[in-house]
Amino acid sequence: MLKLYLRSFRWHQDLWKPFLIEMVALPIIIFIWLGLSQLLTKIAYSLSQGRPVDQLKAALLSSPETAQAFVASTKYFIAAFIGGTLSAIILTIFLFSLSQSLIWSVKSSKLKLLKWVNLHLALIGILILYAFLYLGFNLLFNIITASSIAKSLLNGLLLIVFLFFLFTAYHSFSRILKVGESITYTFKIIKQKFKRYLFAFLMVFVTGVILSLIVSVLKKQFYWQIIGWPKWLSLSLGLALFLAYLAWMRFYVSRI
Hints:
This protein is mainly α. It has one domain (2-254). Helix content is 89%, strand content 0%. The chain has helices at 2-7, 13-48, 53-62, 64-108, 113-122, 124-144, 148-176, 179-192, 194-221, 223-226, 231-254. The chain is globular, with a radius of gyration of 23 Å. It starts with a helix and ends with a helix.
């Protein structure tokens, strides 16, 4: 297992191809949601005409015509919100499914986009469960301790647990190509190889902690140089580093 861990750092196409694919797909998904946010903000601003809440209330109460026009405009905002959100969700699932099918087709040589979409729809339940666990543990930690380091470690731990399951499910699905059987097999294989997965999980977690410490030290060391960078550059470098870590984790987990 230790040899596998050390060999997983070799730079080859199973690392750089997924990295490049997600470096294209993820920014597109981010821009979709940012575009929707800007659109809704503009519509909301046109509704209120930039007036504070108190002034808007006074204007609506003083003029029935203004109130009627506001109600009609509000319906337009609600329609834009619902339609835009649904469209963004559909595009996100489609683009993410396309990116994963391209990534895992490196091994399976099959591009079955619809089945990948179905897999991600089935995994929404797992995502919701993860969200509840994430919120629950964070609320509990807020009561127990105020340490930001402890919270960061907890959040990292929960994220890696979720990603471990996700990548194992992807690997199973790339071979079986059946949604239900893939998810069932994922639980089965984790149970059968629990010690191997536990060791790999600890290695991934420790690697993430070490990487975070290195980034933190570099930020402090070069603070005055970094502070002058454009915000988009800092965010892009952070995203690239995170996706490189994901590409490595994906490869390592798929080889367990």
